[in-house]
Amino acid sequence: MIQTSLIAAIIATGANAVGWGAEPLTPQADFRMITQIQDQSSGMTMEAELRHSNGRFRMETQFQGQDAVVLIDPASTTVTILMSMSGMRLAMDVAADDSGFDIPVADDRLGEPVGTDIVAGEPCTLYRFETEDASGGEALGCLTDDYIVLRVSVPDEGAVFEAREFERAEQEDRWFVVPQGYQRMSMGAMGAFPR
To answer: Of residues 94 and 182, which shows the higher confidence score?
Structure first.
């Protein structure tokens, strides 16, 4: 039996990361970063490796002792989660609209800049923006000139997403596709099922 509650918990870990709006500006460079993500609802903190290339994201983390990889491609209608369970290597597709998973990206409705900072050795511009997802209705994001979000923080709560290590480097396509040997699954309303 697939542990759908575990999979849902991994997806939900990113659900409360503050998003930047409906019209994202994708990063203009390949990069790899180590991030710390704080789930506002549970208070749980996790570390993740985040890679980006051509609008595609890969997030690799560990949840309750198990490695998990999340592949996000804006051109796809699904988010794919890679996990090993009971000796099986699974690639589970979840409808993007239903996944609740959100990688912070910039929005073309950013307000006026309110300052500058350096995060993980990278200069960035601070923007204040309104969001219903944050207590108090606003958050502060630190954004590079080429649209890479390095930190999102909420007043009185601190950073909910922050780069700890960062490097601009070409990312190979293999990081953003399902490797051979994985059994493809779809997550339906009743749980996971082979397709």
So the answer is: 182
What mean pLDDT, rounded, does the chain reach? 78
Concatenate the DSSP letters of all residues of the chain into one string. ---HHHHHHHHHHTTTSPP--SSEE--SS-EEEEEEEE-TTT--EEEEEEEEETTEEEEEEEETTEEEEEEE-TTSSEEEEEEEETTEEEEEEEEHHHH------EETT---EEEEEEETTEEEEEEEEE-TTSGGGEEEEEE-TTS-EEEEEETTTEEEEEEEEEEE----GGGGSPPTTPEEEEEETTEEEE-
Mean pLDDT confidence for 71-99: 83
d(CA 33, CA 162): 10
Residue-wise pLDDT tens digits, 70-82: 998 877 878 898 9
Residues 111 and 104 sit within 8 Å (Cβ to Cβ): no
The larger pLDDT score, comparing residue 123 to residue 46, is at: 123
Q: Is the pTM of this model over 0.85?
A: no
Each domain of the chain, given as residue ranges in start order, spans 4-194
Tokens of 144: 């590079």
CATH topology of domain 4-194: outer membrane lipoprotein receptor (LolB), chain A (2.50.20)
